[in-house]
């Protein structure tokens, strides 16, 4: 038995190689497909008269039809047609099977058909497991499953925790892992963000002046141009002596529209 590219797969599981079609031949095929409502590929192959097999014609049509004719959503009727086609072609597991299945669905590709069938099987398996578990619970064979635990909400910072944070920073500097060991129930990321955005004594919390707004604009534009559009708000905040949240919100509120216009110019 021949082996495919992978050690455990046979050559029949590989996608079929489609022969080349000339431009006029391909256009004629698309016209014939529309004429026969994309159904009778034996007849389409005969009328094409170039020696191409029905499967070759079908594969060419599916690969070259316009994307706007391919639908993403599935209806109940299409699911029923898909199930009937898969049942009819049971036992075959190569790519040609899905090409044939897709031919029975006017606006679906072979890849979509195979993916949809996996979803249907997965949903059935989940429903079967849920029904089996419900039956076992009703029979007293297993206890009823407990409800999932509620997500823990992040506790607010207290005044005492802020004081501990500042003392820890005085002792360890900005080594946030060590700082967090001195603040109960807080991790290094929480300590870092709390200091940079809230309790840093050097932060400006007054209203923005016109000069600061202009400075913010110059820093953001210069940084964005030098870093392919990405903005490091901590870098901006350090230069503005304001929190990163404060800078980002001010930028979004009053400067984003103007900046987009400047980029177009």
Automatic annotation (TrEMBL):
<feature type="domain" description="Myb-like">
    <location>
        <begin position="200"/>
        <end position="255"/>
    </location>
</feature>
<keyword id="KW-0805">Transcription regulation</keyword>
<dbReference type="InterPro" id="IPR051575">
    <property type="entry name" value="Myb-like_DNA-bd"/>
</dbReference>
<dbReference type="InterPro" id="IPR009057">
    <property type="entry name" value="Homeodomain-like_sf"/>
</dbReference>
<dbReference type="Pfam" id="PF13921">
    <property type="entry name" value="Myb_DNA-bind_6"/>
</dbReference>
<feature type="region of interest" description="Disordered">
    <location>
        <begin position="1"/>
        <end position="21"/>
    </location>
</feature>
<feature type="domain" description="SANT">
    <location>
        <begin position="152"/>
        <end position="208"/>
    </location>
</feature>
<dbReference type="GO" id="GO:0019185">
    <property type="term" value="C:snRNA-activating protein complex"/>
</dbReference>
<dbReference type="InterPro" id="IPR017884">
    <property type="entry name" value="SANT_dom"/>
</dbReference>
<dbReference type="GO" id="GO:0042796">
    <property type="term" value="P:snRNA transcription by RNA polymerase III"/>
</dbReference>
<keyword id="KW-0804">Transcription</keyword>
<dbReference type="InterPro" id="IPR001005">
    <property type="entry name" value="SANT/Myb"/>
</dbReference>
<protein>
    <submittedName>
        <fullName>Uncharacterized protein</fullName>
    </submittedName>
</protein>
<keyword id="KW-0238">DNA-binding</keyword>
<dbReference type="InterPro" id="IPR017930">
    <property type="entry name" value="Myb_dom"/>
</dbReference>
<feature type="domain" description="Myb-like">
    <location>
        <begin position="73"/>
        <end position="121"/>
    </location>
</feature>
<dbReference type="Pfam" id="PF00249">
    <property type="entry name" value="Myb_DNA-binding"/>
</dbReference>
<feature type="domain" description="HTH myb-type">
    <location>
        <begin position="147"/>
        <end position="203"/>
    </location>
</feature>
<dbReference type="GO" id="GO:0042795">
    <property type="term" value="P:snRNA transcription by RNA polymerase II"/>
</dbReference>
<keyword id="KW-0539">Nucleus</keyword>
<dbReference type="GO" id="GO:0001006">
    <property type="term" value="F:RNA polymerase III type 3 promoter sequence-specific DNA binding"/>
</dbReference>
<feature type="domain" description="Myb-like">
    <location>
        <begin position="149"/>
        <end position="199"/>
    </location>
</feature>
<dbReference type="GO" id="GO:0000978">
    <property type="term" value="F:RNA polymerase II cis-regulatory region sequence-specific DNA binding"/>
</dbReference>
